[in-house]
């Protein structure tokens, strides 16, 4: 789990435009600092770190949407989403390759059809990394990040008055708390890969909404953040197992009959991994329920 970015100078009475400028500036800088390593074609860590930075900045952009001009928000959200998707294409192959190699660990050679799948994923990964590098070059050439940075700096000029950061943070956190609770209720009821993934997205948005304001929102919210981070990781394990199950199912359909037993063994291992991860997620959610209650009471309590 990536460490949260600490934002200096955020106070309860800070006008929200100034807070937006500070948070967006810090998260955009973090994103840009992660770009050089991600350009390396074989840097799995660089890709992962940049993807986390992009997601963090994207959530900050969404969080402060009320402060930004509509045109600014729409324009820069578009390339951030495009970059996130391109990073996802590379990262998905990295995760699939890692899981496949773990599933087939051992001295025995994998069946030909499994080896073919690995080769195909490696080829797709190389192509996706090339497309990502081209996109990063284009964004830099067009000066898009620099234009966004200039717009963020201009928010400081609008910061003389407006809503207090503390009030804004409490409202946004309450919205995301209610959202993640609704998503988790649906996930328990439906128990589908899609509903569990939606719950993970809601939990991620909650975590990123807490990060800039954790010091001013109190110990109840900080406790929730720590548990929500663990919950995010375990839900990620469930999602990875679900994605691997789909990949194995589609690949097995085209495998020679003589190799299907090997594919079935991989599928059984994946099912077991998913079951273990889901059991952990359910246990963590049971522990999160009182923390959700506690944090919700804290943000709904009348400010001093």
Q: Mind summarizing the main beta sheet?
A: none
Structural class: mainly alpha
How many DSSP E strands? 0
SS field, number of helical segments: 10
- What is the radius of gyration computed over CA atoms, rounded to a whole number of angstroms? 22 Å
Kindly state the mean pLDDT as a whole number?
A: 91
Instruction: Assign a percent range to the helix content.
Output: over 70%
Shape: flat
Q: Which runs of at least 5 residues are low in confidence (pLDDT < 50)?
A: none
Q: SSE order, as H and E?
A: HHHHHHHHHH
Can you put this structure into words, describing what you see?
The structure is a single chain. This protein has 304 residues and is mostly helical. It is 80% helix and 0% strand. It has helices at 16-39, 44-63, 70-103, 112-142, 144-154, 165-190, 193-210, 214-217, 219-253, 260-300. It is flat and about 70 Å long. The model has no long low-confidence stretch (mean pLDDT 91).
Please describe the structure with a list of short key phrases separated by commas or semicolons.
304 residues, mainly alpha, 10 helices
Topology of helices and strands:
Blueprint: H1 16-39, H2 44-63, H3 70-103, H4 112-142, H5 144-154, H6 165-190, H7 193-210, H8 214-217, H9 219-253, H10 260-300
Helix pairs in contact: 1-2, 1-5, 2-3, 3-4, 3-9, 6-7, 6-10, 7-9, 9-10
């Amino acid at each position: 789990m990536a460490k949260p970015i600490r934002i200096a100078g955020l106070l309860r009475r800070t006008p929200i435009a100034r807070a937006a400028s500070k948070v967006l500036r810090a998260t955009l800088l973090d994103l840009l600092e992660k770009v050089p390593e991600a350009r390396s074609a074989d840097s799995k860590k660089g890709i992962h770190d940049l993807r986390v930075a992009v997601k963090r900045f994207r959530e900050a952009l969404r969080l402060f949407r009320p402060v930004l001009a509509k045109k600014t928000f729409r324009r820069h959200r578009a390339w951030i989403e495009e970059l996130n998707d391109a990073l996802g294409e590379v990262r998905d192959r990295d995760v699939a390759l890692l899981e496949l190699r773990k599933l087939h660990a051992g001295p025995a050679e994998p069946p030909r059809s499994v080896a073919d799948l690995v080769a195909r994923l490696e080829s797709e990964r190389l192509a996706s990394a090339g497309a990502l590098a081209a996109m990063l070059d284009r964004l830099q050439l067009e000066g898009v990040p620099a234009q966004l940075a200039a717009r963020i700096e201009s928010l400081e000029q609008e910061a003389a008055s407006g809503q207090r950061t503390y009030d804004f943070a409490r409202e946004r956190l309450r919205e995301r708390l209610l959202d993640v609770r609704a998503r988790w209720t649906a996930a328990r009821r439906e128990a589908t890969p899609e509903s569990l993934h939606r719950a993970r997205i809601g939990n991620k948005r909650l975590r990123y909404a807490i990060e800039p304001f954790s010091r001013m929102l109190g110990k109840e919210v900080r406790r929730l953040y720590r548990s929500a981070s663990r919950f995010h990781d375990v839900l990620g394990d469930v999602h990875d197992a679900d994605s691997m199950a789909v990949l194995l199912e589609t690949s097995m359909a085209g495998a020679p009959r003589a190799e299907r037993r090997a594919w079935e063994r991989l599928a059984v291992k994946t099912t077991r991994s998913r079951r273990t991860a889901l059991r952990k997620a359910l246990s963590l959610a049971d522990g999160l329920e009182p923390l959700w209650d506690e944090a919700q009471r804290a943000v709904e309590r009348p400010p001093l």
